[in-house]
Design a protein that fits this description.
By secondary structure, this protein is an all-alpha fold. The chain has one domain: Outer membrane efflux proteins (OEP) (Up-down Bundle), CATH 1.20.1600.10. Helix 1 packs across helix 5, helix 2 packs antiparallel against helix 5 and helix 5 runs antiparallel to helix 6. It starts with a helix and ends in a 6-residue tail after the last helix.
């Protein structure tokens, strides 16, 4: 049971690319919310135009080129654009919530994929053991049917049918082994191994 739990915990690390991408998307969404929240506050910016105009005092009271009007615009913009800023904020919150759901879904999918592969491997091991016992029993039945044929208690058709059943069970055993090896490859890939 401990090995099973450890393998499942490794699954989160194995799906590292998908989980890491979802984690980075979540962090980006959180930063988008912070930016949208910061837009509610007034801001003052220094631009090259302010620096050039600072040397000529006659520009201080003239219309759009004026430093005072520029500062007044920067301070009152959040009041004028409040609805647009709210919409951006709500949109950023919704995207952050969606990123949380995507992250949880990615982690859950990684967990489910590994658990399914582990149970598949366990089931195939049990199936292989049963098929091996079946092959052994049918191989013994071939020798029994040969002995019955030699003592004239069975016809040769029964011997042939017994041999055919034994051969088919060997094919099934080989098929089960192939599925088992494919399941090991799938768990290796689910845990993050493999090629790109």
């Amino acid at each position: 049971m401990l090995v099973y739990v450890a393998a499942v915990l490794v699954a989160a690390k194995g799906q590292l690319k998908d989980i890491k991408q979802a984690e980075l998307d979540l962090a980006a969404a959180k930063l988008d919310v912070e930016v949208a929240k910061a837009n509610f506050y007034p801001s003052l910016g220094i631009t090259a135009g302010i620096g050039i105009q600072a040397f000529d005092p006659s520009y201080l009271l003239k219309s759009p080129e004026s430093l005072l009007y520029s500062i007044a615009g920067d301070l009152t913009a959040p009041l004028i654009n409040r609805n647009a800023i709210k919409a951006t904020y709500y949109s950023a919150n919704a995207k952050q919530l969606q990123a949380v759901y995507n992250y949880e879904r990615t982690v859950l999918n990684a967990y489910i994929e590994v658990v399914n592969q582990l149970s598949n491997i366990s089931n195939l091991e049990k199936s292989y053991d049963l098929k091996a016992k079946q092959v052994e029993a049918l191989t013994q039945s071939i020798s029994i049917s040969n002995d019955l044929f030699k003592s004239a208690r069975a016809d040769y058709m029964e011997v042939l049918l017994t041999q055919r059943e034994a051969l088919e069970s060997r094919f099934e055993l080989i098929e089960t082994k192939m599925q088992q090896l494919n399941a090991h490859v799938a768990i290796y890939q689910a845990l993050g191994g493999g090629w790109n």
